[in-house]
């Protein structure tokens, strides 16, 4: 939707001038926000020195794209929201020693899911919001932007993507600041999307063994890696932030 101001911007995606649009970095539906009548929603940040603030409809940015740019990623966002939120019950759980280690679904669209993940990462890079300040794609930005403009997901190894889902049903969506980290010597960005985490490779090195068989790929079923929130590295941080809010 339009942000309601008369100023024009140069779209960071297309390079064309137009009215700015309020673009969500993580699609609004992944926040699973309550209605406004239920009270303000608190954003918890994992950046030191930053404090919770009210974000009634999630984090958006009106400095990134025009309507033309927004419309380009609409189908990818809608596909991911439909598949991961509304159709999750169709995923088949994979168990090992009586524990869910992943979920699997056949017949999904590799290009749509891959472009969705790349666009979320690119929006985080392009955003002026402090919550996304740790995302800096450097020389990868023009390459990823070219993939988006050409609607080309690339090969499974080009900016490979793995998707994690929290298995703790007792907790709501988790949204924290994205950041870069290394797995088996390879750079990834970790992006929190409510009940999901996107791991997007920002490296020319090949994917390591940990993610190789689970990353998005053409002609392969879609896999979601299961991860327990309470046993994750995120859990102690979330508890500390919750205590700070309660003070």
What does this entry look like structurally?
This protein is an alpha+beta fold and 247 residues long. It has helices at residues 67-86, 110-126, 140-149, 209-212, 234-246; strands at residues 9-10, 17-18, 23-24, 42-43, 53-54, 60-61, 92-96, 99-105, 161-166, 179-183, 186-193, 196-201, 222-227. Strand 11 and strand 12 (196-201) form a beta hairpin. It starts with 8 loop residues before the first strand and ends with a helix.
Short description:
The protein has 247 residues and is an alpha+beta fold. Helices cover 26% and strands 22% of the residues. The strands form four sheets. Strands 7-8-13-9-12-11-10 form a seven-stranded mixed beta sheet, covered by helices on one side.
Summarize the SSE layout with pairings.
Layout: E1 9-10, E2 17-18, E3 23-24, E4 42-43, E5 53-54, E6 60-61, H1 67-86, E7 92-96, E8 99-105, H2 110-126, H3 140-149, E9 161-166, E10 179-183, E11 186-193, E12 196-201, H4 209-212, E13 222-227, H5 234-246
Parallel strand pairs: 9-13
Antiparallel strand pairs: 1-2, 3-6, 4-5, 7-8, 8-13, 9-12, 10-11, 11-12
Helix pairs in contact: 1-2, 2-3
Q: Catalogue the unreliable spans.
A: 1-5, 35-44, 51-56, 234-247
How many β-strands, per DSSP?
Answer: 13
Strand order of the largest sheet: 7-8-13-9-12-11-10
Q: Helicity range of the residues? A: 25-40%
Q: Briefly note the structural class of the backbone.
A: alpha+beta
Mean pLDDT level: 83
Distance between the termini: 37 Å
- Largest sheet data: 7 strands, mixed
Q: Give the percentage of residues in beta strands.
A: 15-25%
Give me the Rg, rounded. 18 Å
Tertiary shape: globular
Give the count of helical stretches: 5
> What letter string, H or E per element, gives the SSE order?
EEEEEEHEEHHEEEEHEH
